[in-house]
Amino acid sequence: DRPNATGLVIGEITGINKEGWEYLWVRYADAEDTTAKVLVKKPIAVYVEQVYPTNSFASLGIGS
Prior knowledge:
This protein is mostly beta strands. The strands form two sheets. Strands 1-2 form a two-stranded antiparallel sheet. The chain has a two-stranded antiparallel sheet with strand order 3-4. It has strands at residues 5-10, 13-18, 23-33, 38-49. Strand 3 (23-33) and strand 4 form a beta hairpin. The protein starts with a strand and ends in a 15-residue tail after the last strand. The radius of gyration is 18 Å and the shape is rod-shaped.
């Protein structure tokens, strides 16, 4: 069972919603951490992909 998720936060990106069987992936870019003086990965985009079309079981004649 994969629960739905709402209001996810990844880095500074907020308001991410994902249905249970959707696939979420993040694109990162190099950013400088000036305090530690190192390069770090910073999320710059979040993508939620529909793996397969969704539909109601009622359209198949099962469930309600």
